[in-house]
Amino acid sequence: MKSLRTFLIKPLILGSGGVLLLMGVLWLTIPRCELYREDLTWSPVLRDREGQILNVGLAGDERYRLRVPLAEISPTMVKATLAFEDEHYFSHPGVNPLSMMRALFGRLQGISRGGGSTISMQYARMRFQLSTRTVAGKMQQMLRAIQLEKYYSKEKILEAYLNTAPYGGNVEGVAAASLRWCGLECSDLQVPESVALVMLPQRPALRRPRIGQDEHAGTMAARKRLLVKLGHNDEMLADYRWEAHLLPRIAPHLARRMRSYDGPSTIDRKMQSAVEGTLHDYLIRVQEKGVSNAAVLVVNSSSREVLSYVGSADFFDAKIDGQVDVIRAKRSPGSLYKPFLYGMAMEQGLLHPQTLLADAPLRFRDYNPENYERDFLGPVKAGEALFRSRNLPALSLMQRIKGHGLYDYLQQAGIAMKHGPDHYGLALALGAAAATPEEMATIYASLADDGIPRPLVFRRGEMAQSLRRMPMLSEGTRWMVRQMLAETASRDPMAEPTYSFKTGTSQGFRDAWAIGISGQTVIVVWVGHSDGRSNPSFEGRGIAAPLMSELFHRTNALQPLPPPPPQVRKVELCAVTGMIPCEHCRHRTTGWVLAGVSPIVPCDLHRLVWVDQRTGMRVAPRDDDPMVKAEICEFWTPEFLELFRLAGLPRRSIPESAEVLSQSNEAPQILSPMRDHLYQIVQGSEQGLICKAKAAAGVSRLFWFGNGVFLGSCKPSEAFIWNDASGPCELHVMDDRGLSSRVAVMVERPQP
Ligand SMILES: [Zn+2]
Does residue 697 sit in the same domain as residue 557? Predict the structure, then answer.
């Protein structure tokens, strides 16, 4: 007996040990494989700032297939899938011999109990594209399932199955299926949808949802069985019907642009829908004018995040080349650069909003703008010149600004320039360099925020990168520009919600623009044809500004202008010249100036003259003759007088002086700098001390001396600049008759 036992047991132990060893060796030799098919592609997905899906595109093989982590799939759906497909998924090694045997016996008895395939095996069949109708195919499927199980966790394999299983039509994976057949994201699937969806992968062609039709009785019965298995009432699905849902198609241009990025974008869903809706309504209203396309970009100036992105009126409309993303197209900007030009001019002390500029048909050295503008306003306040977008004052400022001022500014602020500054010349002020709506939003957002240029942010959580450390324009200047552009500038933009805005119209009416700022919201509107065809309706103020205004109202973005920063002061000014009023300036106004920067020179336009009523001639002052009366006259320079005349606004001429006047022994009176004042020369500016004197009539030249040294001469109507004035200064002016006066001032300069 003993020998028999030994005889039997020994080989049994040895044999099973050998089998185990062999299996162990085989297990170790199983090669690694990738979890997903190498040529598998995914649908590009655009998500909003909350991570919700805005747009789904087709994967490379024309299928809708979204990749989502298992954690983002509704647990109800996962539970239902396991209950229906593979109850013991988490306890078998990839193959479940018991269920295979059950399936085999079932088949022998003629009862279908499924294929006995585990989820791992089903995934292996899809992953390796196996045909499992043959025994060899089935064996291969089992080995592949074991191979997958060796290298990937149960969760990963289940995730891969749920992401790639066929759910009818060209829909693969539970995420695309729940959007397509239930109108839900897969994280929101409840019991009825889950139970309906889990039936699809086994027979996608047969069970593919038929919208509005009754289900097969077999499918209904299977759903009821699954409901019971999951512990629910089997009546729960009695009235469940498939509904047609289009896959989300919001912000298609941005979806295409960000197709390789899967995380949350910066898009605000509510804002995007409001913008798309407003644009749609607006285009219906203006279609009679031949307007059919527009682009809108909404940006938060503080974070530089893009909140709304509309690249064309309709992505799917071939008639308007809807697929062209105008947000990234270089277009001609018209007057949109002017606010930055005025900002620089203010920063360089050339003007403040009330400064009188000449809107004159002037000729420039290398540029003749007369074709641009046949009408002109004559003298115009800087604020009005900017608000009304006058070309001629802008060109004149362009000439006065130092260096390649505007060119350098725009380039550093984010406009990619195709050519050097000389290519554009003065015409840059009128929009000679093309820019994209995105670039425009970039430079206006920095104007609305802290003046530091940063590219726009499209990915949630990303910080905008500063392109410079210092602001391009000071806080005071930025505020002044916004104030000049305020819609309700005539009222009080700090008291009521408003926006600051600038319009642009390209030459030949090809592009109409409007860009608005309110609070932290910047809205860029472009209207035109993407192929560049012109239309007389494409005029910024007429066609783009109304849409921009409507967008501000519809998105509830309007806020009052913030209060002025400390550098900005409200001062009393002569209403005619915008200068510091003298005793003879009768019309006065208040205006904003930048402390220590803005030109604040006393008004020398309004002067008192004495007129002999009998002759109408100016005479020397006297109070013993009742026929000699004092009058206030405006002493315009010949250039301005000519300008008024050309503009059809002739000024009253100053009474001619009687001969006696030339013998007046009035010494020139220094108006600027003012006696015993402290002057600060601003950091970075190359500005000197502005010297101006009121000369007696008949004087043709003034000679200036600083601390006893001859500095130079000028006409009485001109200001003289003392460039290197510093410390305690004594300024001395002498007219051409040798009469003189002097003032002492203190000039502070920043330490180099
Ligand atoms: Zn005045």
Answer: no
603, two tokens: 């008004």
Domain boundaries, position 2? 1-30
Report the separation in Å between the CA atom of 622 and the middle of ligand 1, taken as the mean of its atom positions. 24
Rounded to an integer, what distance in angstroms lies between the CA atom of residue 22 and that of residue 106?
33
Task: Tell whether 147 and 197 lie within a shared domain.
Answer: yes
Compute the distance from residue 605 Cα to the ligand 1 centre, in Å. Answer: 5
DSSP of 491-535: S-TTTS-B-EEEEEE-TTS-EEEEEEEETTEEEEEEEE-TT----
Q: What integer is the mean pLDDT of 160-184?
A: 93
One domain for residues 360 and 403:
yes
Q: How far is the CA of 462 from the centre of ligand 1 (A)?
A: 53
Can you give the pLDDT at residue 366?
A: 45
Ligand 1 center to residue 636 CA distance, Å? 11
Ligand 1 centre to CA of 576 (Å) is 6
* Residue that is written with structure tokens 């009862």 in the block: 111
Q: Which residues surround ligand 1, an ion (CB under 5 A)?
A: 574, 577, 585, 603, 605-606
Give me the number of domains the chain comprises: 6
pLDDT of residue 215 exceeding 80, the answer is no
Which position has the higher pLDDT, 114 or 129? 129
Considering the domain boundaries, does residue 415 fall inside one? yes
What spacing in Å lies between the alpha carbon of 267 and ligand 1's midpoint?
A: 52
What are the tens digits of pLDDT across the range 239-270?
677 777 889 999 999 999 999 998 999 999 99
CATH code assigned at 124: 1.10.3810.10
Closest CA to 484 of 591, 570, 377, 589: 591
pLDDT tens digits for range 655-681: 777 654 445 667 888 888 877 777 766
Please give the distance, rounded to the nearest whole angstrom, from the Cα atom of residue 278 to the centre of ligand 1.
48
pLDDT recorded at residue 114:
59
Classify burial at 227, counting beta carbons within 10 Å of its beta carbon; exposed 0-12, middle 13-18, buried 19 or more. Answer: buried
Let me know: does 164 contact 176? Beta carbons within 8 Å. no
Please count the other Cβ atoms lying within 10 Å of the Cβ belonging to residue 709: 8
In a domain? residue 254: no
Q: Are residues 200 and 132 in the same domain?
A: yes
Ligand 1 centre to CA of 747 (Å) is 26
Going from the Cα of 631 to the center of ligand 1, the distance in angstroms, rounded, reads 14
Distance in Å, CA 602 to ligand 1 centroid: 8
- Between the CA of 668 and the centroid of ligand 1 the distance, in Å, is 18
How far, in Å, from the CA of 572 to the mean position of ligand 1? 11
Instruction: Check whether residue 684 and residue 706 sit in a common domain.
Output: yes
For residue 384, the CA-to-ligand 1 centroid distance in Å is: 18
Helix (H, G, I), strand (E, B) or coil at 735: strand
> How many degrees, rounded to 5, is the angle at CA 141 between CA 138 and CA 142?
90
* Token pair of 699 as six digits: 């004087």
CB under 8 Å to 292, separation ≥6 — which residues?
283, 313, 319, 320, 529
State the distance from the centre of ligand 1 to the C-alpha of 513, rounded, in angstroms: 38
> Measured in angstroms, how far is the CA atom of residue 187 from the centroid of ligand 1?
71
DSSP string, 631-680: EEEE---HHHHHHHHHTT-PPPPPPPBPGGGGG--PPPEEEESPTT-EEE
Expressed in angstroms and rounded, the spacing between residue 574 Cα and the centre of ligand 1 is: 4
- 524 within domain boundaries: no
Are residues 18 and 122 located together in one domain of the fold?
no
The residue among 392, 420, 401 whose CA lies nearest residue 349 is 401
Cross-strand partners of 45 = 56
Distance 603 CA to ligand 1 centre (A): 5
- Specify if 55 maps to a domain: yes
Distance 607 CA to ligand 1 centre (A): 8
Do both 553 and 657 map to the same domain? no
Distance from the alpha carbon of residue 70 to the mean position of ligand 1, in angstroms: 76
Radius of gyration of the chain (CA): 40
Number of neighbouring beta carbons within 10 Å of residue 622: 9
Asked whether residue 440 falls in the same domain as residue 549, the answer is: yes
